[in-house]
């Protein structure tokens, strides 16, 4: 059977909600099972069985038992692995060849290092003609990740693995370990690997989005992601002519940041998305080395009723000497899909004085204080971040008003993606600085903002560049990028994409005067099965299973007056090998998210104080294959990406410590896809 036909059966199992690995097993992973290469995991501590074909990238120092690097563990299997940097660093090039072996039905291995499909990869090569059958580049992370290949089309044929490093660039090396063949390639003990690898991804356009997006075990189903490529900041959020529009900073060429386009999707309910053509292209699309692009901005309905985008035009001044690096431009569309750049661009031709750190991410709003358009834009000097304020009557001619608000340096010397809007009788300002989202609530007189309270927008590890918009019902809605610039864990690069946006949130002023978030009510329409009412329930020290789900909403209501436990924990994405822990400590009202034992994702702990939970603690959680959003009733939110290693990492359990936890209600609702 041709590999594409065989893989289509594997991928169909995801579409139908089953695991892909059992599909492989059902076809007989061991039916044509042969030994793999000699020294498959380098456990000899040497390159025995491997041949240096060329170059000096690989040698005796390449095999190492080093267990960790600056960003965490390498996660090798056993003691030794091949570390491509160890011999001669990033600038060395070379190729390393395994011994010949007969292909089995299945092959898997661990890979890490720099993302470069053309120059850094592992290939399966047929001995008889030297033809490359399959290849995989790493994910731009030193840590190793498991790739699984369907090799049934070549079962019994003589093949070898070729480890290639033809890159002299930074991160131009490859890590490799633990080649497995046959049934052993599919899992550890009684756990089955998630089937990862670019070769397992169906081509864009080869099926409906509902099926394509279901095929990838890491891809969230009700969060917006690019099918291939990279996204970061949500941009241009607006409800226009009844439809919600979501634009994103986008690089279609690779799952890495690059020349910024604007991807475009629309929705009737801010929950179910449909892809539209790319809205903005970078100014120099024919030169992939030119990082000039269309950076973050906003969208409004202009006086003609058109959908107008206002954004940062970034120019790579190293390639375009004499250009202004960051200016503000605009484009408009009468039908909402094809955007025409304004002949007056740039509409703001240069930053004001004392903007050395940058000048980007304009957000436009209608100011009812003096009934004109206003624009806030992120900036900073060498010491503090700041937000500049402009005004306009026509969205084209802009006049500088002054500095709306500036900091003391503690939140960075460059503030990105500022948003400014009224909520009731208060004004809210939030922005990104030092890879965190910061908010202020206070007063505004038309020219200057005064902060009365402040805090962090999101308590979790994976939130940045949140953008606000007001919908036609008057709600203050927002979407955040589920990432930040400190995040170096993007395992989905293995499958050709990186970046996801949060579910749509509604913003409000909390009882303590801070900024709160809650899921937009329309998420209820994602329910794909009957809700399970699992409470009331009293939880003690023995772990209590709530079920197993990979895409679900979990709502908990805890009776704190009856709870005697010193703490209680919710285990998510749980299996015998990994889990995420969410623990609440009633004594100090602290909620802690712990991802130190959670798959391929960012390891760490994050916490927040929950207000108003002395009688009842309400939690609303959204689990989506590799992502997690946690909302507390007081407005606290945690956003995290998890990236489970195993198919079985879907368990949900509750456990109490030193007493009992009393739950008034527990509801688990399966959720479907935003693309179906």
From TrEMBL:
Glycosyl hydrolase family 32 C-terminal domain sequence ranges: 538-668
Keywords: Glycosidase, Hydrolase, Signal
The keyword Signal belongs to this UniProt entry's keyword annotation: yes
Record EC number: 3.2.1.26
Alphabetical GO biological process terms: carbohydrate metabolic process
Name of one Pfam family that matches: Glyco_hydro_32C
Signal peptide span: 1-20
Residue ranges constituting the Glycosyl hydrolase family 32 N-terminal domain according to the UniProt record: 223-513
GO molecular-function term, one example from the UniProt record: beta-fructofuranosidase activity
UniProt cross-references to SUPFAM superfamilies, sorted A to Z: Arabinanase/levansucrase/invertase, Concanavalin A-like lectins/glucanases
Transmembrane segments: none
Enzyme class, UniProt record, top EC level: hydrolase
Family named by the database record: Belongs to the glycosyl hydrolase 32 family.
Protein name as annotated: beta-fructofuranosidase
